[in-house]
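thread: overnight batch results

M.L. [08:02]
morning all. the overnight job finished for the chain we discussed friday. pasting input first so we're all looking at the same thing
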Amino acid sequence: MFNLNIDVENDSSLALAGQSFDSKKFVIALCELGYNATLTQIPKTPMIWRYYILGPLVVFLLGVIGYGLYMAYFRLIA
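M.L. [08:03]
and the structure it wrote out:
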């Protein structure tokens, strides 16, 4: 998925956010029709959910495992 910005003659632009299609064929078709078309790759931004969901989930699971081992150890001794 990517954002497609189309600049038209009267200094306005059209934005199609989150569209998914074959960009290579699209650019080739635009060039064949006489339009100046280029593809510009931008750096991929990290997904936010990795930091806000996955991190606390790992900490929680490590805590549950640690607590379970702690309780199992004391049950074997007592």
